[in-house]
Structure formats: structure tokens, C-alpha cells
């Protein structure tokens, strides 16, 4: 029977095919190793070695907790000088430089039993006396023991350092090529075959196609516009014939960055790239956008007087200098610019011989700055080529940059452009500027140039002629030196704004002369641009002093005339106000007889009933008849209060504000006043609709307007007639006349009469201020104009329906309110009511009997009352009695008004509630006082208590 492979009795069998490492293991002194003699090794270790030693791949086995190293012949070269001393020793001794990286990987495999694998895994290894980062494909697998544990880690590795470094070098070469192409002002692309797939596109190419992402996509898909001129067919022909194709000023409709498109003109070449077998593997695309050149040439063909600003689109070449090899290589186009045929690379010294001798020193300094690791300057220089035998040379603009590895420049790459034509144009421009200066100095005007910072760079001799200031002094001092001192600060700010705006300048300016005089000039300046770059301004100014002085004299005359017109307008406004007052006096006169008659009736009722009650009281207790007579007195007083309120409203001493109004109630409430005002010859009818919409209007103004219309209607019926006041809900369309309201919902209140009516001529002028058909002294002509103004300010309008001999109807349209009058009233009165019992109130009134009535009413309601006859006594009472919670104060008092008292009292108590009492509601004094804080005389006990309770409610809530 054959002995097992792993028999410990004969180790030579185990390592018979183990190569050199098998022999080394047999010959190794294992007494100093943590593994001990071979005979004591576990079977799993011997089996793993039996498999690893003859393998042709790199294998190392780390065994046990010390990770003792055992490896085969293929692995030995990988560790360099560590072999053979690493054999049989713990791994941390031989792999110390990477142990922090390696140990976690081995520990993970040993403790988890999981295999770890990685591609191109970097490790830092010291071998051959040098440290370096190397790369491996690794697979670390556990070697299981019979008891289920892990005895060691079997590592199969394959060094990939050469492959990784080659891939990186290739990527770096491609990046250098891309950077070199990106330096080229022209567009460059490489189309991989088959399919014309974009493999490389430089920055100019990407800009040309509107910034599209084209790399990795077929050209026809990425830029479908190229099919316009059959360029795909041209590419197919280049691939098929292996011959290049050159296009000149080919028009293409190409995309822009903003999503639009525009036609561009391109010069380009399609150059096939072949492999060793001659097969076309790619097409090299290189060209120049010559759109601007094309446009410039077209413009020059139209006008030979235009300055030659267009530059010839120079051919663009590339260059590459290898510092280590000292080899300077160029594209064929670059060699052509230097006047030589394409050939092998040259040394830097050989290439320098192609430069103009006078330019070589500064070219050398610029190039050394570019390849200096400390400076790394961008290579950007213009120089001349070495003169040809006929003395001619070219100007070249060369750009480039250095490529560094660490602190060492290894290469320099860049582009070359022939700028000979631009240099010649610059010489011509200098000659043109000289002619310009000569022409400017000959003009009788101020001519100047500025740079982009708006500093003067040229001033003509006109400054000396007109201002007496030398042109050199003007350039040195700038514009501000020519301005009066009070204008310099604002002018400096405008210069900054002008530099940003870069728009044309035009205007008149006041300048100082050398003799301390002043001259006015009119200046025109225009911005100068070259290839889109702002160069500054060119300007010209002429002396307009005499014209300006004449203008000032004219302005003075205009101001005098304007002042005269202003005075005349003020006089007219004064006359209008006087006529307005006359109209009001006329209306007051109309009210006088009726109101006087009503007041006489009321006083008769009051006096008669008071006399009868007095007699009844003298005879004993009051009888029911006496109480009824007292009720007649109260009703008469309330009627008097109503008449007083109407009179105050008409006198404009009532507080006015728009609110939700029931027009039916307003009309029916006004009928008694109309009856007493218009006289018995006028029959008054009130025709109200069943359910009127609520209207938003100032009720006092409404009563005045209706009264005004009623008086006009009465005057139109000199022999008597019928006046009808009606209300209606209406929905209007587009207006026919200017005074009518816009389309929408309105509440109409109309005043109709059976009078003489109006002719069309009178109707056309009815709303004109001061127009009247009445005889002199009978009317101001402001009535209907005020009606129209009131309606428009309220958000409505007016309409007149009339005919001669058929009467007139004036309709006032008022805007429909969103809430009903009852709801508005409830919102206004919300929080009102409640009790004032137990509250302490100060009553201030200079009229003793009025104060006593008010105090008695509050005591009857349960209040504690403190009385004061003037503001000073009231302030003393406040200081003496901290328990006072509110004040009822009369407004009109001598020495100190109620308003002044409230101001001083709130300096002591900022939150003190004050209820103002007034008999005529002075609008000026009470303009800033909220309506709930004002009560008008006469008032009832209930009204006083209710208003005071509402005023105290917020204070009570804040205390709670």
C-alpha cells in the first residue's frame, strides 16, 4: 500500500516536486521557527504546501497566528532581497514596511474565513534596497483545519506593476495630447473608424458645436448638422480612398450655447490615419472657424474707406519639446511658418537658429520661466523668424505650457499662429492714428481719446485754443481738473458708472479756462471697441457758450411767465372755493325756513308739556297723563337731536367715513327734511325697491348729494311739481359716457322731477364746474360737478336722463357692498354692551348741568363717579384716586380741551380709556380719534353706558 502524500515519516516525499523552495524547506533549520520541525506540522499545512510549491503562479502561505511565511519558487523574485531570510519567519519581520496595510487583510481572512480578492492592489514594498509602490492581482483564501478553524492564509498573487504603469503612461500621453490640442485656437477632433465615432474633441471643437457632449458618439448622431453639406459622405470618401479632403469656407448651420443656431464658415482638413496594414483606423479633423474673417472680408469689399480691422486667419501649428531628449518636434504646418520643410526633430539650439537674432534673448527668458518648477509661467510671446535672404520675416504668436512630474518639467507643448498680417495692420493703425491726431489738432473743437479706464490719452490743440490749457496738462490732470470744484464729486461718480455702461455720451458741460473763466461746451463721445474689447472713448466738443447764455435768458423768461400763470391759477382756485362756499350758503338758506319751522314746533311741544307736568307735580304725585306728557318731551328732544345732526353734517363738522348703508332707510329717513326744505308746492314720493343690495358709501355725503339734487329739481319746477326719490339694484354693461360707471353691480338712487328738462346742449355741459343755466346770483354751477365727483370717489358714477319739457332723472350709482348693513353694524358693535356696575369713572365737563346729568346716569348704572369741572382738576383727581378706571370727557372746554386733557392723562396712565363727548364733533381735533371713543350730544343713558362698557372691555381682558 502506498504511503500518503502528507506522511510525516518521509518529508522528502512531500517536497519531491517542490523545486528549489522544496529543497530549501527540507534543509531549513526549523527549530528557531514558530512552526517547529516539519514532522510536527499539521496535515493541512503539509497539504497546502504540496499544492503550492510546484505551482507556476506566485503563491505565499502565511500560517498560524504569527503568519509564518512559506512560498514557492515563482513568488521568490517578487520579494527581492527578503528571500530567503523571509522563509519560516513571522511576516511582520520581513514585510514590516507594509505590515500596517497587509496585516488587516490577513487578519480578516483568518478570523472570518472569507476570501479577499482585488485587482491592481497597490502595496509599498522594499526590495533590492529601494522602496516602491507595486501592484498585484491578489486572492487571499483561508486554509481550514479539521476542527473548523483557519490555520493559515493562502495568497495567490500576480504582480501587475508593469501593466498599471503602462496604462497610466498611456493615459498621461493621451492627456498631454488633449491638452496640446486644447491649446490650439482651431478645432480638432479624432473620429474612430468604423462609424466616425468621436474619440477626441478639443475645446474649440466643443465650443463650435454648442458645448454638446460628443465624445464616444457617432458624428452623425452627435452633430447631425454636418450632414447639411454632405460631410458624412466626404468622411466616407476619405476612409474609402485613404486620401485627405480639404474644405475652404464651408458654410454650416451650427448650434449655439443658448439653444439657437447660426451659420459659421469653416476651413478644415479631413486626414486619414492608417495602421501598419494601411487600413484607415481614424480620421483626424483639424480646422479653423473663419466666420469672422469671412464677414470682415465681405465688409471690406463693400467699403474701401473702412479701417482694415479684420485679420487674416492664420494657420495654426503645434509644437512639442522633450526636455530629457532635447528634441523639438513640430507639425508640418509649424515648420512651414518657419520657412522650412517638415523633417526630423531638432535640438533646442538648432530650433533657436530659426528665430530672429534680436528676439532670441527674450524668447529664451520666457521659455526658461515656463519650464522653471518654481515659476511655471505660461508661455505667451510674439517674435520674428530668422530673415530670409530677401530680408523678409514672419511674426509668430506662440503659446504653451510646461508639463511637470513632481518638481521636474519633462515636456513643453503649445501652438503657433502666424500674426504677420496683424502686425502689419498694427503699423497701419499707428499711421492712421498719426493722421487722426493731425486732423484733430486742426479742428476748432476739443477732441480727445481715453483708455479703457477712462483716463485721457490724447487731447487736441483745441483745448489750448478754447480753454487756454495745454493738451499735455489736460491729459495729466484729466477731465476733473477742467470742472468747477462743486461738480467734481458727482462727475467722478458718473465716470465710474460710464466705465461700466460703455454707452454713448452726450450733453452740455461747464468747463474752467486757464484765466479762471468758464465756457460751456456740447460734447459727444462714443465708445471704441476692437474685436469685442473696450478700448475707451473718442469724443469731440464744440464751444456753445453764447447759445447757452441765450438759453438761460430764455429760461428766465419762461420762469417769469410760469410764476405769472401760477399766480393766476391760484386766484382761480380761490374764486372756485368762494363760489363753492356761496353754493353751500345757498343750500343753508334753503334749509333755514323748514328747519326753523320744525324747531318752533318741537319747542312748542317741549314748553307746553313741561308746563303741564310742572302743574301736575305741584298738585301731587305724577299721574299717568303727566308721564305721557314727559314721553312727548323726550320724543321732541330726539327729533331735535336728529335735526341737529343733519345740520352738523351739512356744515361738514360731522366725522365722515364710508360704511355699509341701507339706501332704503337713508331715503325714507331724508323725506321729512326734504318736505320742510322744498316747501308745500313740491310733492315728494319715495319709491324704494323691495330688497336693495347693501351699498358702500359715506352716509352723510349721500344725504348732502340727495339734498343738492332735490334743490336743483325744485328750481326746475318753478310752478310746483312732483319730486321722486327711488332706489333699485342694477347690473350695468360698458359705459356710454365718461361720467357713467364701469360694468358691474351697483345700487342706484335716483332723483326725478317733472320740471323743464334739459336740451342736448345743456346736457353735454351739465357736469362742467361753474356751468349753470340759472340767472346771476341764483347758482354757482358746482352742484352736478360735486355729485359727479362724489360718485366717482365712491367707486360709482352718474347718469342723466332728460328731455326738454319732460323732466329730468339724475341716477347716482353706488358700489355694491359685500356685507349687509346689519352684519356691518354687528361687527362694529361686537364687544359692546355689558355692565359698568362697580367701575370707577371720572366725569369731566365745564357745563355743571350737563356734568350732573352724566354723573347721575352713571351712578344709576352702578358706577362710582368722580366729577371735575376743568382739565386741571381732572388731572389732580387722577393723581389722587388710582382706582379711576375710565374718563368721560367733554371736548370743547376753555383753557384745556378734552383732547389735551387725554394727552396729559395718558402720560400718567398710558392705557387709560377716555370717552370723548362732543356737541359738534370738531373734525380737526377728533381726526385721529377712533369712532368708538366718541359719543355725540345729546345721548341717552343707554347709549352712554353701552359705549363706556365697550371701551372698558379691552382693558378688562388685558387685566384678566
Q: Please tell me the overall pLDDT.
A: 80
The neighbouring-strand order within the major sheet is: 2-1-5-4-3
Number of helices: 28
> Main β-sheet: number of strands, strand sense, barrel status?
5 strands, antiparallel
Radius of gyration: 55 Å
Q: How would the global form be characterised?
A: elongated
The share of residues in helices is 40-55%
Counting DSSP E segments of at least 2 residues, the number of strands comes to 32
Beta-strand content: 25-35%
Uncertain stretches of 5 or more adjacent residues = 1-8, 303-314, 652-656, 776-781, 827-832
Judged by helices, strands and strand pairing, the structural class is: alpha+beta
Distance between the termini: 111 Å
Written account of the structure:
The protein is of the alpha+beta class and 960 residues long. The longest helix is centred in the middle third of the chain and has 75 residues, at 545-619.
Key terms for this structure?
alpha+beta
Give the secondary structure arrangement, pairings included.
Blueprint: H1 11-14, H2 19-27, H3 43-52, E1 58-63, E2 68-71, H4 91-94, H5 99-112, E3 116-127, E4 130-144, E5 150-159, H6 161-183, E6 187-192, E7 197-201, H7 203-208, H8 219-222, H9 231-241, E8 245-255, E9 261-274, E10 280-289, H10 291-302, E11 316-322, E12 327-330, H11 332-337, H12 348-352, H13 360-371, E13 379-384, E14 395-405, E15 408-418, H14 420-442, E16 446-450, E17 456-459, H15 462-467, H16 471-477, H17 485-501, E18 505-512, E19 518-530, E20 533-543, H18 545-619, H19 624-650, E21 659-661, H20 663-678, E22 682-687, E23 695-697, H21 699-715, E24 721-732, E25 744-753, H22 760-764, H23 783-793, E26 797-802, E27 808-815, H24 821-829, E28 840-844, H25 848-860, E29 864-868, H26 871-880, E30 886-890, H27 898-908, E31 914-918, E32 934-936, H28 941-959
Parallel strand pairs: 22-24, 28-29, 28-30, 30-31, 31-32
Antiparallel strand pairs: 1-2, 1-5, 3-4, 4-5, 6-7, 6-10, 8-9, 9-10, 11-12, 11-15, 13-14, 14-15, 16-17, 16-20, 18-19, 19-20, 21-23, 24-25, 25-27, 26-27
Amino acid at each position: 500500500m502506498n504511503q500518503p502524500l502528507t506522511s510525516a515519516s518521509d518529508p522528502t516525499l512531500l517536497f519531491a516536486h517542490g523545486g528549489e523552495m522544496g529543497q530549501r524547506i527540507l534543509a531549513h533549520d526549523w527549530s528557531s521557527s514558530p512552526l517547529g520541525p516539519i514532522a510536527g506540522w499539521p496535515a493541512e499545512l503539509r497539504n497546502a504546501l504540496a499544492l503550492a510549491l510546484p505551482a507556476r503562479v506566485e503563491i505565499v502561505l502565511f500560517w498560524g497566528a504569527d503568519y509564518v511565511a512559506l512560498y514557492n519558487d515563482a513568488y521568490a523574485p517578487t520579494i527581492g532581497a527578503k528571500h530567503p531570510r523571509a522563509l519560516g519567519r513571522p511576516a511582520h519581520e520581513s514585510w514590516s514596511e507594509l505590515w500596517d496595510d497587509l496585516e488587516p487583510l490577513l487578519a480578516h481572512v483568518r478570523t472570518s474565513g472569507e476570501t479577499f480578492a482585488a485587482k491592481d492592489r497597490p502595496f509599498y514594498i522594499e526590495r533590492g534596497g529601494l522602496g516602491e509602490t507595486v501592484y498585484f492581482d491578489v486572492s487571499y483564501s483561508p486554509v481550514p483545519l479539521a476542527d473548523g478553524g483557519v490555520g493559515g492564509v493562502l495568497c495567490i498573487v500576480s504582480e501587475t506593476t508593469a501593466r498599471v504603469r503602462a496604462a497610466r503612461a498611456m493615459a498621461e500621453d493621451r492627456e498631454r495630447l488633449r491638452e496640446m490640442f486644447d491649446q490650439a485656437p482651431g478645432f480638432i477632433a479624432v473620429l474612430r473608424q468604423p462609424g466616425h465615432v468621436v474619440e477626441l474633441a478639443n475645446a474649440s471643437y466643443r465650443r463650435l458645436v454648442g458645448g454638446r457632449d460628443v465624445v464616444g458618439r457617432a458624428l452623425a448622431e452627435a452633430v447631425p448638422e454636418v450632414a447639411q453639406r454632405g460631410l458624412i459622405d466626404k468622411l466616407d470618401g476619405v476612409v474609402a480612398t485613404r486620401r485627405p479632403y480639404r474644405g475652404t469656407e464651408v458654410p454650416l448651420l451650427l448650434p449655439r450655447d443658448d439653444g439657437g443656431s447660426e451659420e459659421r464658415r469653416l476651413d478644415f482638413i479631413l486626414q486619414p490615419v492608417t495602421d501598419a496594414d494601411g487600413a484607415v483606423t481614424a480620421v483626424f479633423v483639424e480646422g479653423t472657424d473663419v466666420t469672422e474673417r469671412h464677414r470682415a472680408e465681405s465688409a471690406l469689399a463693400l467699403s474701401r474707406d473702412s479701417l482694415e480691422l479684420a485679420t487674416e486667419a492664420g494657420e495654426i501649428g503645434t509644437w512639442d519639446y522633450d526636455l530629457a531628449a532635447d528634441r523639438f518636434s513640430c507639425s508640418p504646418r509649424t515648420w512651414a511658418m518657419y520657412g522650412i520643410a517638415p523633417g526630423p526633430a531638432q535640438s533646442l539650439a538648432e530650433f533657436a537658429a530659426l528665430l530672429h537674432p534680436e528676439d532670441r534673448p527674450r524668447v529664451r527668458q520666457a521659455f526658461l520661466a515656463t519650464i522653471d518648477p518654481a515659476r511655471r509661467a505660461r508661455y505667451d510671446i510674439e517674435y520674428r523668424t530668422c530673415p530670409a535672404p530677401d530680408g523678409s520675416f514672419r511674426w509668430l504668436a506662440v503659446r504653451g505650457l510646461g508639463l511637470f512630474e513632481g518638481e521636474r518639467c519633462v515636456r513643453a507643448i503649445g501652438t503657433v499662429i502666424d500674426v504677420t498680417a496683424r502686425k502689419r495692420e498694427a503699423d497701419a493703425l499707428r499711421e492712421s492714428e498719426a493722421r487722426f491726431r493731425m486732423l484733430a489738432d486742426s479742428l476748432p473743437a476739443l477732441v480727445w481719446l481715453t483708455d479703457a479706464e477712462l483716463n485721457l490719452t490724447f487731447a487736441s490743440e483745441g483745448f489750448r485754443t478754447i480753454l487756454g490749457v495745454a493738451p499735455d496738462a489736460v491729459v495729466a490732470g484729466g477731465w476733473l481738473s477742467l470742472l468747477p470744484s462743486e461738480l467734481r464729486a458727482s462727475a467722478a461718480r458718473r465716470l465710474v458708472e460710464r466705465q461700466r455702461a460703455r454707452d454713448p455720451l452726450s450733453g452740455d458741460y461747464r468747463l474752467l479756462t486757464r484765466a479762471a473763466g468758464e465756457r460751456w461746451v456740447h460734447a459727444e463721445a462714443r465708445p471704441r471697441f476692437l474685436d469685442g474689447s473696450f478700448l475707451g472713448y473718442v469724443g469731440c466738443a464744440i464751444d456753445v457758450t453764447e447759445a447757452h447764455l441765450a438759453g438761460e435768458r430764455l429760461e428766465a423768461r419762461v420762469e417769469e411767465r410760469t410764476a405769472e400763470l401760477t399766480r393766476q391759477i391760484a386766484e382761480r382756485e380761490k374764486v372756485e372755493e368762494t363760489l363753492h362756499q356761496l353754493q353751500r350758503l345757498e343750500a343753508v338758506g334753503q334749509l333755514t325756513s323748514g328747519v326753523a319751522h320744525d324747531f318752533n314746533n318741537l319747542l312748542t311741544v317741549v314748553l307746553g308739556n313741561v308746563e303741564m307736568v310742572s302743574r301736575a307735580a305741584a298738585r301731587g304725585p305724577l299721574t299717568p297723563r303727566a308721564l305721557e306728557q314727559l314721553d312727548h318731551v323726550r320724543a321732541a328732544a330726539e327729533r331735535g337731536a336728529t335735526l341737529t345732526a343733519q345740520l352738523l353734517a351739512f356744515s361738514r363738522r360731522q366725522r365722515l367715513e364710508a360704511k355699509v348703508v341701507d339706501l332704503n332707510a337713508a331715503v325714507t329717513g331724508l323725506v321729512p327734511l326734504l318736505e320742510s326744505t322744498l316747501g308745500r308746492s313740491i310733492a315728494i314720493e319715495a319709491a324704494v325697491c323691495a330688497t336693495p343690495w347693501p351699498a358702500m358709501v359715506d352716509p352723510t355725503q349721500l344725504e348732502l348729494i340727495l339734498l343738492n339734487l332735490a334743490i336743483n329739481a325744485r328750481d326746475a319746477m318753478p310752478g310746483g311739481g312732483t319730486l321722486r326719490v327711488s332706489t333699485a339694484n342694477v347690473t350695468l354693461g360698458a359705459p356710454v359716457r365718461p361720467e357713467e360707471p364701469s360694468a358691474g353691480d351697483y345700487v342706484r338712487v335716483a332723483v326725478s322731477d317733472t320740471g323743464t328738462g334739459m336740451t342736448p346742449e345743456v346736457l353735454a355741459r351739465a357736469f362742467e364746474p361753474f356751468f349753470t343755466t340759472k340767472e346771476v346770483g341764483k347758482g354757482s354751477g358746482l352742484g352736478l360737478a360735486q355729485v359727479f365727483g362724489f360718485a366717482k370717489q365712491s367707486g360709482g358714477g352718474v347718469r342723466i336722463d332728460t328731455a326738454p319739457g319732460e323732466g329730468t332723472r339724475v341716477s347716482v350709482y353706488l358700489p355694491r357692498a359685500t356685507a349687509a348693513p346689519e352684519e356691518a353694524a354687528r361687527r362694529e358693535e361686537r364687544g359692546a354692551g355689558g355692565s359698568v356696575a362697580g367701575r370707577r369713572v371720572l366725569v369731566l365737563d365745564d357745563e355743571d348741568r350737563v356734568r350732573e346729568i352724566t354723573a347721575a346716569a352713571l351712578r344709576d348704572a352702578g358706577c362710582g363717579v368722580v366729577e371735575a369741572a376743568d382739565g386741571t382738576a381732572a388731572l389732580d383727581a387722577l393723581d389722587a384716586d388710582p382706582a379711576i378706571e375710565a374718563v368721560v370727557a367733554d371736548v370743547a372746554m376753555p383753557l384745556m380741551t378734552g383732547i389735551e386733557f387725554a394727552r396729559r392723562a395718558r402720560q400718567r396712565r398710558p392705557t387709560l380709556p377716555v370717552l370723548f363727548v362732543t356737541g359738534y364733533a370738531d373734525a380737526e381735533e377728533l381726526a385721529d380719534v377712533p369712532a368708538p371713543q366718541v359719543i355725540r350730544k345729546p345721548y341717552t343713558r343707554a347709549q352712554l353706558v353701552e359705549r363706556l362698557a365697550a371701551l372698558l372691555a379691552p382693558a378688562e381682558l388685558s387685566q384678566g
